[in-house]
Amino acid sequence: MPNRITKTHLSALFIIIFLLGLILGYFLNIAKINYFGKDTNVVLGNRLQLGLLDKIWQSLEKDFLYDDDLDKEKAVWGSAEGLVAAAGDPYTVFLRPELNKELDITLDTELEGIGAEVAMEAGYLTIISVLPDSPARQAGLQSGDVIYEVDGKATVGMNVYEAVALVRGPDGSEVDLTMIRSGKAKPFEVKVKRSKLDIPLLDVNELEDGILYIGVGYFGDKLMDQLSEHYNLIKSDKTKAIVWDMRYNTGGLLEEAVALSSEFLPEGQTISWRKYKNFKEAIKSFPGFQNFADLNKPMVLLLNEGSASATEIFAGVLRDYELATLVGETTLGKGSMQQIEELSGGSSLKVTIAEWLTPKEYNINGIGISPDIEVEFDLEADYDTQLQKAIDVLKEKTQILNAE
To answer: How many CB atoms lie within 10 A of CB 325?
Structure first.
């Protein structure tokens, strides 16, 4: 008797096929997620599928009511900025041509602006430190203040170079800042008159009791040449101790920081480690720079929250080799290295490629270097409280040496 397919059989077969479809669909979807990394079609393996951007632009050209206002150049710049901003690193930025020019003056010792060191913190343009005798200091701006608007333009969402370009300006011009300060209920307005900011590379003075003061304003390319003029004084018997003042020194040229560090160390000693993505390398002391290797004099290094980058590398050397007592406040923690790639149209990409470590491999980035003796700068005092503490420390150390 021939087999007959009943309604019951058909129903069972349908259910089986349906269940197989569900199972197959589930595993195909899992495979898709694993392959793309996310349940999306804009990422293929490790490659971005940028056709989405082209599709968006085509839709704008086709349907956007105000298509005459569309600017292809602005669209490209904006896309590039958004792509780089997705990295989430404030020091990795795409710079439009006009902002790229700002980098050409970052190593100048003479700038025009308000005299405040700033950084992007949690997306807000925040004052890290205020230079002494600067327009910012005279206007009452403080570390921790947020510059919310510059001449009515909100700084939220900008990269730090964009924001700095707005704040800077010609000597004598004015800028209106909308500030936010912890403890104040509402934002407040400040008008600041920009001025020429002359940051001296070196300031050398003889203080009391044989203490020599050496202020280093910036690691510029003439620093070691200028310092060499004072070598005899540094090494002379009349100099009993030394204060190195690097407060508000935001860094500069790595080579100059390595050269200064090399003066205190035997040739070939580790000054810093450069930690890349997949390896690290040691930066060694330069040969022929060992002028202070046998100095054997008490030293203090003054630091504050405005001390950054190359200054922190030098501070790491003095701390790790126990060459000086660190006095003041914790440094900024700018311990990363950027590479600049010039792009078409005068734009550039500044990308973080490494972090700096101290000789003993302590990380600086985002942490800073803490002082051995913490002393805040007292704005109400009629003297430099941090410098006075450095002098007191050195007097005590020289008295101990003399007693021996």
So the answer is: 19
Dist CA 13 CA 359 (whole Å): 73
What are phi and psi for residue 128, nearest 5 degrees? -90, -45
220-257 tens-digit pLDDT: 889 999 999 999 999 999 999 999 999 999 888 999 99
3-state SS, residue 115: coil
Q: How far apart are CA 249 and CA 266, in angstroms?
A: 26
Contact 256, 107 (CB under 8 A): no
Q: Give dist(CA 57, CA 51) in Å, integer.
A: 10
**CA nearest to 306, candidates 126, 155, 41, 44:** 126
Q: Which of 72-81, 230-239, 296-305 has the lowest mean pLDDT?
A: 72-81
Is 385 exposed, middle or buried (CB count within 10 Å of its CB: 0-12, 13-18, 19+)? middle
Q: Which residue has the tokens 């203040």?
A: 145
d(CA 207, CA 213): 7
Q: What is the DSSP letter of 286?
A: P
Angle at which helix 310-320 crosses helix 254-262, to 10 degrees, equals: 20
Helix (H) / strand (E) containing 328: strand 325-328
For 94, counting Cβ atoms within 10 Å of its Cβ (0-12 exposed, 13-18 middle, 19+ buried), the class is buried
C-beta of residue 143 within 8 angstroms of C-beta of residue 128:
yes
Tokens of 87: 């990295």
Neighbouring C-beta atoms of residue 257, cutoff 10 Å: 27
The residues, ordered by sequence, that sit 6+ positions from 114 with a Cβ below 8 Å of its Cβ are 134, 135, 136, 139, 141, 167, 168, 175, 192, 194
Whole-model pTM: value is 0.77
Q: Which of 271, 270, 258, 259 is nearest to 228 (CA)?
A: 259
Question: How far apart are the C-alpha atoms of 272 and 188, rounded to whole Å?
Answer: 43
Does residue 248 contact residue 128 with C-beta atoms inside 8 Å? no
DSSP label of 271: E
Q: Are 346 and 100 in contact (CB under 8 A)?
A: yes
3-state helix, strand, coil in the chain (%, to 5): 35, 25, 40
